Amino acid sequence: MSSLDTLMSLEGASAAFEFSATGELTGHRVAEGSSLTPESLDLLAHVFVANIAIATMQARGWESSTGQGGFYPIQGFTLVGFEWSTVGNGHRGVVLRNDVADFEAAYAALES
Amino acid sequence: MIKQLLALDGMLVICHFRDDGTLVEGYGLMGEDMMQRLAKFAHDYKRMVQGNTDQFSMFTQLPGWAPPRGWNVRGAQYTVCSVGNLVCFIDNAEASLNEVMRELDEAASY
Amino acid sequence: MSVFSELAGMTGVIAAGEYSYRGDRYNFRGQLSEDMARMASIMCRATTMSTHMQSDILCANSDNCPFEEAHGWVVKGPQFTVCVMANVFCFVSNEPGVFNRIFKRMRDSLMDAPDVQEMV
């Protein structure tokens, strides 16, 4: 099973996608009935790249200012919408329905 | 007053927005709807730049960064520039970025 | 009891707090110094503003956008995860089962909190 198929097997997954280091969409799967388009997934991919970069800056600043480690390197970012969330790490992301989402499983799948 | 900035080389659009992101006035080669969207984007972007500048100042303790006066984002053909509550669109091939930023800075302090 | 106080008492939570959308006010409970809580509030506010701008852009040209409003965000590190919903932040230890439970609690309490745009 490809890594995108693994992500699609998560409960409540409506799309899984992969992207380049700069956020361009390089591959995707969309569940039947989902309104997500490759254009929307490309934007979400850029959201991940942008937010993981910002979070990395924050983790670096936090760790050097406070001496408290444990945040760097960033291992993922999630954007929470009303009904849906998107979880991303590295070069892959997945869109999950909030009411059934297992975020820990999603992060584990993104790390594998 | 900001309409005069359209006379600068390469200046395509100039807008003034309120602190809530609504458009006060706008001039140039863009419809009202697009100007409203530009105003909202500039307002949101300003808040984001403020947030990032606050964090930079907080982590480094360096003076002279916060509050930020403005920002610009350069694309292949166009650049979006903002100072205070003014935002403009310029054509990279014709405009002088230095001149535009200087004029925006002056107009923003009226 | 405020949501952040309740969260701070849950297993696996290192600290929880709330920040104002405008200005520098914040409250917190847990294992953070006053200065760390102030910094955490500034960082969380900045990311919240940024995700709101992003969701606006994501949905600007779409009638049926799943991220019409950004209600929150999560950043995971090797040992800790930061979870933010509305104006409440929570620092969570990465122990199995903890994050899903905390996130559900935050979603149940804060999903209907007023939109950031109405607060700024």
Order of the strands making up the biggest sheet of chain C: 2-1-5-4-3
What is the terminal-to-terminal distance of chain A?
A: 13 Å
- Which class do the helix and strand fractions of chain C yield? alpha+beta
Q: Assign the CATH topology of chain A.
A: Beta-Lactamase
At the fourth level of CATH, the homologous superfamily of chain A is Dynein light chain 2a, cytoplasmic
Shape of chain A: globular
The helix tally of chain C amounts to: 4
Gyration radius of chain A (Cα, Å) is: 14 Å
CATH arch. level architecture of chain C: 2-Layer Sandwich
Query: Main β-sheet of chain C, in a few words?
Result: 5 strands, antiparallel
Question: Uncertain regions of chain A: pLDDT < 50 for 5+ in a row?
Answer: none
Query: What is the largest interface, and how many residues per chain?
Result: A-C, 42 and 40 residues
Gyration radius of chain C (Cα, Å) is 14 Å
Approximate strand percentage of chain A: 25-35%
The overall number of domains of chain C is 1
Mean pLDDT of chain C: 90
Sheet of most strands of chain A: 5 strands, antiparallel
Number of helices of chain A: 3
Mean pLDDT of chain A, as a whole number? 94
Task: Please provide a written account of the structure.
The complex is a heterotrimer of chains A (112), B (110) and C (120). With 112 residues, chain A is an alpha+beta fold. Chain A has one domain: 2-Layer Sandwich (Beta-Lactamase), CATH 3.30.450. Chain A is built from three helices and five strands, in the order H-E-E-H-E-E-E-H. In chain A, strands 2-1-5-4-3 form a five-stranded antiparallel sheet, with helices on both faces. The longest helix of chain A is centred in the middle third of the chain and has 29 residues, at 38-66. In chain A, 46% of the residues are buried. With 110 residues, chain B is an alpha+beta fold. Chain B is globular, with a radius of gyration of 14 Å. The model of chain B has no long low-confidence stretch (mean pLDDT 95). By secondary structure, chain C is of the alpha+beta class. In chain C, a hairpin with a 6-residue loop joins strand 1 and strand 2 (26-30). The longest helix of chain C is centred in the middle third of the chain and has 25 residues, at 34-58. The relative contact order of chain C is 0.21.
